[in-house]
Amino acid sequence: MTLKLFELVGTDEQRPFSPFCWRTRMALAHKGLSAQSIPWCFTEKQAIAPHQSEKVPVLLDGETSVADSWAIANYLEDTYPDRPSLFGGEGGRAICRMMNWWGDIAVVGGMFPLIVADIPSHLKPVDAAYFRKTREARLGKPLEQAAAERDKSVESFRKGLEPMRLTLKTQDYLGGDAPNYADYIVFGGFQWARVVSPFKLLAEADPVYAWRERLLDTFDGMARKSPGFPV
Amino acid sequence: MTLKLFELVGTDEQRPFSPFCWRTRMALAHKGLSAQSIPWCFTEKQAIAPHQSEKVPVLLDGETSVADSWAIANYLEDTYPDRPSLFGGEGGRAICRMMNWWGDIAVVGGMFPLIVADIPSHLKPVDAAYFRKTREARLGKPLEQAAAERDKSVESFRKGLEPMRLTLKTQDYLGGDAPNYADYIVFGGFQWARVVSPFKLLAEADPVYAWRERLLDTFDGMARKSPGFPV
Known about the structure:
Domain GST N-terminal (chains A, B): 8-84
Order of helices and strands of chain A: EHEHEEHHHHHHHH
Protein name (chains A, B): Glutathione S-transferase
Oligomer: homodimer
Number of helices of chain A: 10
CATH architecture of chain A: 3-Layer(aba) Sandwich
Number of strands of chain A: 4
GO molecular function (chains A, B): glutathione transferase activity; maleylacetoacetate isomerase activity
Helix content of chain A: 40-55%
Largest interface: A-B, 32 and 32 residues
Keywords (chains A, B): Transferase
Structural class of chain A: alpha+beta
CATH superfamily of chain A: Glutaredoxin
């Protein structure tokens, strides 16, 4: 069995970013599975077209290909049921569906304008041009303008984490005593930011900061060992 | 076995409100349990003081008393494990902890300024005075001012439901194919609003509206049969 994973990179193939690929990396590690990385850049649409996707992550498992981090998490849970559960039961899986959307909106979407201007310098020229064009259209403003506002806009991002912050007062992980896929959903965003941007998303006194430290140390420090900025 | 539940009411003892009491009502029904209602008003602190609480719901189960809706849900799950599960496993319970905070902040907190001005007319004079004083301090403005802004502020409330709205595109309930405690967390807020206010929180085309309809019909229409305004 050799798993392969298309992962987003820029000029440095050893520096995978993408919050969604990191969700999958953590999920694979949780299952005790390793995957051979296939570095992939934004404009290499043809490389993944055979797998009916325009975006990564795409997981290859023998003859099977699965695109989209949520679909991959479900595939791993169903295909490798004897390994540690990502969801802790069917109730957890169902409720994680909303957690995944919350992570997309409040976490990934919330930090996007804060770190987006730091991303092009990590990309090849053709990808940087593609990235700037598509992301400025999404933002409705130049990347540099979003960055100029970030010392102020980080406050609303932090406020948006309040449901998570309160949760971490009574349990170490969103998944309870140990991390599960709910944690990886959120952590994927923070690891994305750590890889591409020196911007301080969290105050050190924030319980979410301590939680991120724990996730950086999980799986023998897998995420911390991946190249990134100090957090 | 006779369960008893302290529930918040105003002048009409047949019209329980409180989003938190409704979470418990739904949880009890999910477990197939019934509880004798003990009507309770805001200023009747002495009645529940013996149970180490200043707020409702408070559940009495023989010699045991449990305060706080989240604690009650956990108590019911642990004490009645052979009845339908509220969480669908330990993963679901852990992840629901954050859902509960999200429900408190985005749902109950989000609708609070939209419906708060409609509440005093349901209360006895002594409770209405207590309510106005404590809630205006929380809002930082007169109740009527919050109400005057609500046609505009409802938009940000609706936007805050986006993670839930997207989830309901692929499953009927937050709990999956059938409702579980994740649904009751959110529904408690909507039922609170329905009991006390004619204000339209949701557009009819919203998937959250259809979800609320399904919850109103659950348990043989238990919530819909309780007095309230049309939604």
